[in-house]
């Protein structure tokens, strides 16, 4: 008997590579449509979000933000002046990651009737995935209708000599560390960098934030990064913009960073939060004529360009590197796969059931710093660059009654970007304590292309921070 004959094989309607939130949602939608579905995962079922990103980072940040809010309230502030209980915060973080065990997630996959295959999955030809299990045993899975690549991204590390010996942190180590380092250098100015600087400074670390560019959160309106940088500095973070890292070494356990200006910074740990790369380098793309390690371009139904069976869903297609947007894509892809499998019409026109149109026009995001920064749609610069005739309407959130009640000394700002031709909103940005809960209303306005004349009749409750909607609309009308 040959080696090939010893390899077990199974056929499914759909094979999903990756069991993070995106892969789970693809499986959920295809199983709900009656398609047999296999899910392949080499690490923990639940993926990056559940164990090293969204859940642990927000578990770390929630006590930080709650304490900051409490300190702004007379009658309560005196009770919360001491340091956070770091051990308790980390224990709660561990609870929300299920202590890095995936039994519950496996149970959920079982409940929807999807088959889990543990091991490393690689494409080995059209509609074919070979899984090498932890014991080295291989299985060949063949898909009748679709293979969905949901393998996400990995952290990018710079090409610095000797960096491996330094053992730097990436987002994984930053969200799973079991103790606060005494001194932490964070390299980057985006979401991971600002959130982790916020968390670990509050949990007892002395944090230095090194940013190559001019400011923080450069994908948002400029004032978002400015307000977050100001607050981080006030909290004790040493924020240094326009600063590059030329070398990193570890000497007698101490990390030594040399900047582009020749400054020497010592720390206990260093976190690089400087971008993500697609997790496609070892999934067999070469066997189907595609380049390994590249982003996978897709149409709005999430089908890979030039293929009638391969789908790429979530971060791996580089459309919107956000868990909620990946889950949205997964619902679209699952419905599209199911429609094509049954021969039903595919509604791939904008805003159709099988089109991820929101990826282009209405992507929301919240940065859980103090203050929070939340945005959806286009910034003013992006709208102008796209050729829209627009007007930005700004408002000081501190002037809203609900904000003043929320916290003494409230600082924040709101902006809506108005398409003057159609009088609809192309983008909205809020920065301030508690604004993360405002962004869905903005998302509905942008995704629904709600005319400003109709928004007038969406009355915000008083006294809430949402009253900023009325003030923005008044500012647009009166000026």
TrEMBL record:
<feature type="domain" description="FAD/NAD(P)-binding">
    <location>
        <begin position="12"/>
        <end position="324"/>
    </location>
</feature>
<dbReference type="Pfam" id="PF02852">
    <property type="entry name" value="Pyr_redox_dim"/>
</dbReference>
<keyword id="KW-0274">FAD</keyword>
<dbReference type="InterPro" id="IPR001100">
    <property type="entry name" value="Pyr_nuc-diS_OxRdtase"/>
</dbReference>
<comment type="similarity">
    <text>Belongs to the class-I pyridine nucleotide-disulfide oxidoreductase family.</text>
</comment>
<keyword id="KW-0285">Flavoprotein</keyword>
<dbReference type="Pfam" id="PF07992">
    <property type="entry name" value="Pyr_redox_2"/>
</dbReference>
<keyword id="KW-0520">NAD</keyword>
<keyword id="KW-0560">Oxidoreductase</keyword>
<dbReference type="InterPro" id="IPR016156">
    <property type="entry name" value="FAD/NAD-linked_Rdtase_dimer_sf"/>
</dbReference>
<dbReference type="InterPro" id="IPR050151">
    <property type="entry name" value="Class-I_Pyr_Nuc-Dis_Oxidored"/>
</dbReference>
<feature type="domain" description="Pyridine nucleotide-disulphide oxidoreductase dimerisation">
    <location>
        <begin position="363"/>
        <end position="469"/>
    </location>
</feature>
<dbReference type="InterPro" id="IPR023753">
    <property type="entry name" value="FAD/NAD-binding_dom"/>
</dbReference>
<dbReference type="InterPro" id="IPR004099">
    <property type="entry name" value="Pyr_nucl-diS_OxRdtase_dimer"/>
</dbReference>
<protein>
    <submittedName>
        <fullName>NAD(P)/FAD-dependent oxidoreductase</fullName>
        <ecNumber>1.-.-.-</ecNumber>
    </submittedName>
</protein>
<dbReference type="InterPro" id="IPR036188">
    <property type="entry name" value="FAD/NAD-bd_sf"/>
</dbReference>
<dbReference type="GO" id="GO:0016491">
    <property type="term" value="F:oxidoreductase activity"/>
</dbReference>
């Amino acid at each position: 008997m040959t080696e090939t004959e010893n390899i077990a094989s199974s056929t499914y309607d759909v094979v999903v590579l990756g069991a993070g939130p995106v892969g789970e949602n693809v499986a959920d939608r295809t199983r709900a449509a009656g398609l047999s579905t296999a899910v392949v995962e080499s690490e923990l079922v639940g993926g990056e979000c559940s164990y090293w990103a969204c859940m642990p980072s927000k578990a770390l940040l929630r006590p930080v933000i709650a304490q900051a809010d409490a300190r702004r309230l007379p009658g309560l502030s005196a009770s919360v002046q001491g340091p956070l209980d770091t051990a308790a915060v980390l224990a709660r973080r561990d609870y929300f990651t299920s202590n890095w065990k995936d039994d519950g997630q496996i149970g959920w996959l079982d409940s929807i009737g999807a088959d889990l295959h543990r091991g490393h999955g690689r494409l080995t030809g059209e509609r074919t995935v070979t899984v090498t299990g932890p014991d080295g045993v291989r299985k060949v899975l063949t898909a009748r209708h679709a293979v969905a690549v949901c393998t996400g991204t990995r952290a990018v590390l710079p090409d610095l000599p000797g960096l491996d010996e330094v053992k730097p942190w990436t987002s994984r180590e930053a969200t799973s560390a079991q103790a606060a380092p005494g001194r932490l250098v964070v390299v980057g100015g985006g979401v991971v960098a600002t959130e982790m600087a916020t968390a670990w400074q509050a949990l007892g670390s002395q944090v230095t934030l090194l940013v190559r560019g001019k400011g923080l959160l450069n994908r948002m309106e400029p004032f978002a990064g400015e307000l977050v940088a100001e607050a981080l500095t006030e909290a004790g973070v040493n924020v240094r913009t326009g600063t590059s890292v030329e070398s990193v070494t570890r000497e007698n356990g101490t990390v030594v960073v040399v900047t582009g200006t020749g400054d020497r910074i010592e720390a206990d740990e260093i976190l690089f939060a400087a971008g993500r790369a697609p997790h496609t380098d070892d999934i067999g793309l070469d066997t189907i004529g595609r380049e390994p390690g590249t982003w996978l371009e897709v149409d709005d139904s999430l089908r890979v360009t030039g293929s009638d069976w391969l789908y790429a869903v979530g971060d791996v297609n580089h459309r919107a590197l956000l868990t909620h947007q990946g889950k949205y894509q997964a619902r679209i892809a699952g419905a599209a796969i199911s429609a094509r499998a049954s021969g039903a019409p595919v509604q791939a026109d904008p805003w159709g059931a099988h089109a991820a149109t929101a990826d282009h026009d209405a992507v929301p995001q919240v940065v859980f710093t103090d203050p929070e920064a939340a945005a959806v749609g286009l910034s003013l610069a992006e709208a102008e660059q796209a050729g829209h005739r627009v007007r930005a309407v700004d408002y000081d959130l501190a002037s809203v009654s609900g904000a003043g009640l929320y916290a003494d000394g409230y600082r924040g700002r709101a902006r809506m970007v108005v398409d003057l031709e159609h009088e609809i909103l192309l983008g909205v940005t809020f920065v301030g304590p508690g604004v993360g809960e405002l962004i869905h209303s903005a998302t509905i306005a942008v995704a629904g292309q709600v005319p400003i004349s109709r928004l007038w009749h969406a009355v915000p409750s008083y006294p809430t921070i949402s009253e900023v909607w009325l003030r923005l609309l008044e500012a647009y009308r009166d000026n």
